[in-house]
Design goal:
Elements (H helix, E strand, L loop, with lengths): L7 E6 L2 H11 L3 E8 L4 E8 L2 E7 L18 E5 L2 H10 L8 E2 L6 E6 L5 E6 L1
Parallel strand pairs: 1-4, 5-8
Antiparallel strand pairs: 2-3, 3-4, 6-7, 7-8
């Protein structure tokens, strides 16, 4: 088996409209396709992020899950940015709480974390 790339990442949200606004209007991800699945009372929104895709799902009353960066399981999603300070300022201008900028001790690159509407830890990493 030879894996060539990450095809997509799936996220389940608790408030579809709020999360759609966050990922599309604030983070600027492009919409590939949006589907309402009536039998599940659920949306599936395919988003374009560079060369990969995020599938944003909504389900009625999804169970809560621990989502801090240091919890067992998926740690976080990281997005590359050109200018970390500019990105932090942009997020803060949209009233998004952003942690202090840190420096990766291995690469020397700057990074920081911020939450999505369901408190999923997201990272921006200066490429």
């Amino acid at each position: 088996m030879k894996i060539s790339r990450v095809h997509h990442v799936a996220i389940i949200c608790s408030d579809y409209q709020k999360s759609k606004h966050f990922y599309v209007d604030i983070l600027g991800f492009g919409i590939i396709h949006e589907t309402f699945r009536r039998e599940r009372n659920s949306y599936k929104l395919d988003l374009k992020v560079g060369n990969t895709q995020i599938e944003l799902f909504s389900f009625p009353n999804p169970p809560q899950r621990v989502s801090k960066p240091e919890a067992c399981g998926l740690r976080h999603l990281a997005f590359a940015v050109e200018d970390i300070q500019e990105s932090v300022n942009y997020l803060k201008s949209h009233h998004i709480e952003v942690e202090n900028i840190r420096v990766d001790e291995i690469t020397g690159k700057k990074f920081t974390f911020f939450p999505d509407p369901d408190n999923l830890p997201l990272e921006i990493y200066e490429a």
